[in-house]
Design a protein that fits this description.
This is Enoyl-[acyl-carrier-protein] reductase [NADH]. It catalyses: a 2,3-saturated acyl-[ACP] + NAD(+) = a (2E)-enoyl-[ACP] + NADH + H(+). Keywords: Fatty acid biosynthesis, Fatty acid metabolism, Lipid biosynthesis, Lipid metabolism, NAD, Oxidoreductase. Belongs to the short-chain dehydrogenases/reductases (SDR) family. FabI subfamily. Pfam families: adh_short_C2. By secondary structure, the chain is α/β, with parallel strands linked by helices. The protein has a single domain, classed as NAD(P)-binding Rossmann-like Domain (Rossmann fold, 3-Layer(aba) Sandwich). Helix content is about 40%, strand content about 15%. The protein is built from seven helices and seven strands. Strands 3-2-1-4-5-6-7 form a seven-stranded parallel β-sheet, with helices on both faces. Helix 5 links the parallel strand 5 and strand 6. Helix 1 crosses helix 7 and helix 3 packs parallel to helix 4. It is globular. The protein starts with 7 loop residues before the first strand and ends in an 8-residue tail after the last strand. The structure holds ligand 0WD. The site of ligand 0WD has 28 residues, from helix 1 and strand 5.
Length: about 260
């Protein structure tokens, strides 16, 4: 369908073909969006170029952006403004925590590790929203990726769970700030999906196995399902929704 015909959407966080942001890329591309990509590392850039080529998707623009730097974010969005002009959507699909703090007791989290997780995984949405809103002059939609560990204690998720709680609260405060400009901010809370980042959290198989056992749908979700839910948030189909966290987790979160 052409739900996103004529829309320019920035996608942050494609590391490889397993990335959630790659599932989102396919959904938005199939809906007719023009896509702009940002990535942090040279390695991801090379992978992205190959992936786009293999899937016959043409990027409007690829810019580098390290969300740990305000300057880098500003430069990226200035380049997008100069080369593309107005944007209508942003996909924020980045997070980071030190691997050694994604296991054991949360109480052992270091000050630095706590701040790093908050900076890359939560504050980045604040900084990106501020930069994006300047070029979302026709209104728009911003979508981030979160996880159930924000709401409940999930073994080993630890410092990232606290960062995701901060991210989800940011979604609500940001939604209030930019709502007056016709910009919406929402989050998708996906079930466990095997990606590069997921490898950093211990006990992935255990988590995925539990979903198959007890989630209402008795199966895990994949990148494409997150992609289609994100398409809903980016498109006008969700024009009445902002500040929301939508679970794409086979219903796991409703089970006690
Ligand atoms: O089970 C999962 N995989 C779930 C992931 C369940 C629910 C939510 N999520 C979230 C993650 O927490 C994250 O917010 O989805 C988002 C995307 O995660 P992913 O798709 O699982 O992970 P991955 O494929 O590793 O992509 C993460 C990207 C990488 O891109 P680059 O281009 O940098 O290689 O986040 C990037 C990471 O490197 N990233 C950064 N990007 C810009 N600046 C930074 C940074 N400082 N740090 C990490």
């Amino acid at each position: 369908s052409g739900l996103l015909e004529g829309k320019n959407v920035v996608i942050m966080g494609v590391a490889n073909e397993r990335s959630i942001a790659w599932g989102i890329t396919k959904s938005l591309h199939n809906a007719g969006a023009k896509l702009i990509f940002t990535n942090r590392q040279e390695r991801s850039y090379n992978k992205l170029v190959k992936l786009l080529d293999k899937n016959d998707i043409e990027a409007e623009l690829i810019v580098s952006c390290d969300v740990s730097s305000d300057e880098s974010i500003q430069e990226a969005f200035t380049e997008i403004k100069n080369k593309v002009g107005v944007i209508h959507g942003v996909i924020h699909s980045v997070a980071f925590a030190n691997r050694e703090e994604l296991q054991g007791e949360y109480a052992n989290t270091s000050r630095d590790g706590f701040l790093t997780a908050q900076e890359i995984s939560a504050y980045s949405l604040v900084a990106v929203t501020r930069a994006a809103k300047e070029i979302m002059t026709e209104g728009g939609s911003i979508v981030t990726q979160t996880y159930l560990g924000a709401e409940r204690v999930i073994k080993d998720y630890n410092v990232m769970g606290v960062a995701k709680a901060s991210l989800e609260a940011s979604v609500r405060y940001l939604a209030e700030d930019v709502g007056k400009y016709g910009i919406r901010v929402n989050a998708v809370s996906a079930g466990p999906i095997r990606t590069l980042s997921a490898k950093g959290v211990s006990g992935f198989n255990e988590k995925a196995g539990k979903i198959e056992e007890v989630a209402p749908l008795r199966r895990n979700v994949d990148q494409d399902q997150v992609g289609d839910a994100t398409l809903f948030f980016i498109s006008d189909l969700s024009r009445g929704v902002t500040g929301e966290v939508l679970h794409v987790d086979s219903g796991f979160h409703i089970i006690g």
